[in-house]
Amino acid sequence: MPGNMLSKGEVFVIETDAASREQLSIALQQSAYDVICFADGASLLSEAKARMPACVLLEMPPDRSALEVLKRLREENCMAPVLVTSANGSIAMAVDAIKNGATDFIEKPFRTHDIVGRIDAAIDEVAQPGASRQRWLPGCEPLTGREGDVLEHLAAGLTNKEIARRMHLSARTVEGYRASILKKAGAKNVTDLLRRIFGQGSPAQV
């Protein structure tokens, strides 16, 4: 990190590819973050108990062991946003990551500056007073703040890609949130979901 810049906080990183790890470290340090890289989830969890990171960038291996790291971070009240990356991403994996506390799910290969931008956006959202708000669909499990935001955009007719651009998320992450919303609402698809919403009142009340 340049010596004349104040640190914006620590970013914990698990990334097995050495070249990607180095590029991420350089880009994050240039953006005034301190970067701490870990070889595995156990060492990251141990360090997270002693110090609170501003953000966690967590690679999802084929065995999905990163899901357990996600669960443990939330169980231990680590409120830092967690961005999950994967070279073998799928909608099902994105949904699982989000259910277990991930803020964003990003498929590889990715552009380093995009990751820095997503980290900035995730940290900014956590810092906003309304970031932890919840919203309700009548008779359904409450939606998280991000699910509510995605729902409002869906109700406005935006596509997944348009929502992703507006919310500074990956399209795969938006797909994951959409799937979670549909499951909570018991809706078959987005059309069915919106029919229920408009039948019950304005989306602004969601």
From TrEMBL:
<dbReference type="InterPro" id="IPR001789">
    <property type="entry name" value="Sig_transdc_resp-reg_receiver"/>
</dbReference>
<keyword id="KW-0805">Transcription regulation</keyword>
<dbReference type="InterPro" id="IPR011006">
    <property type="entry name" value="CheY-like_superfamily"/>
</dbReference>
<dbReference type="InterPro" id="IPR036388">
    <property type="entry name" value="WH-like_DNA-bd_sf"/>
</dbReference>
<dbReference type="GO" id="GO:0006355">
    <property type="term" value="P:regulation of DNA-templated transcription"/>
</dbReference>
<dbReference type="GO" id="GO:0000160">
    <property type="term" value="P:phosphorelay signal transduction system"/>
</dbReference>
<protein>
    <submittedName>
        <fullName>LuxR family two component transcriptional regulator</fullName>
    </submittedName>
</protein>
<feature type="domain" description="Response regulatory">
    <location>
        <begin position="10"/>
        <end position="123"/>
    </location>
</feature>
<dbReference type="InterPro" id="IPR016032">
    <property type="entry name" value="Sig_transdc_resp-reg_C-effctor"/>
</dbReference>
<dbReference type="GO" id="GO:0003677">
    <property type="term" value="F:DNA binding"/>
</dbReference>
<feature type="domain" description="HTH luxR-type">
    <location>
        <begin position="141"/>
        <end position="201"/>
    </location>
</feature>
<dbReference type="Pfam" id="PF00072">
    <property type="entry name" value="Response_reg"/>
</dbReference>
<keyword id="KW-0238">DNA-binding</keyword>
<dbReference type="Pfam" id="PF00196">
    <property type="entry name" value="GerE"/>
</dbReference>
<dbReference type="InterPro" id="IPR000792">
    <property type="entry name" value="Tscrpt_reg_LuxR_C"/>
</dbReference>
<keyword id="KW-0804">Transcription</keyword>
